[in-house]
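Entry 12.
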Amino acid sequence: MGHDSLANILRSNFNLMHHHKWSLGDVDGMMPWEKHIYVDMLNDWVKEQDDLAKQQENEYKNMVSQLKRRRR
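Predicted 3D structure (tokens):
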């Protein structure tokens, strides 16, 4: 993380603390490479959750569309 700007480091700390409920002590206690791995893992998890939500929304829309067609 040596290439990260101070703003990026603070933004990562904020996100870990406020969105994922980690303490500042936990975040500050990590080695830079360890924090980088956790941030990458969290980004992957958030993307998976977004993809799952989109899939469920599409399934719901398809179900509603099928019900509307049956009523006609």
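Annotation: The helical segments are 6-18, 24-28, 32-71. The chain has a mean pLDDT of 90.
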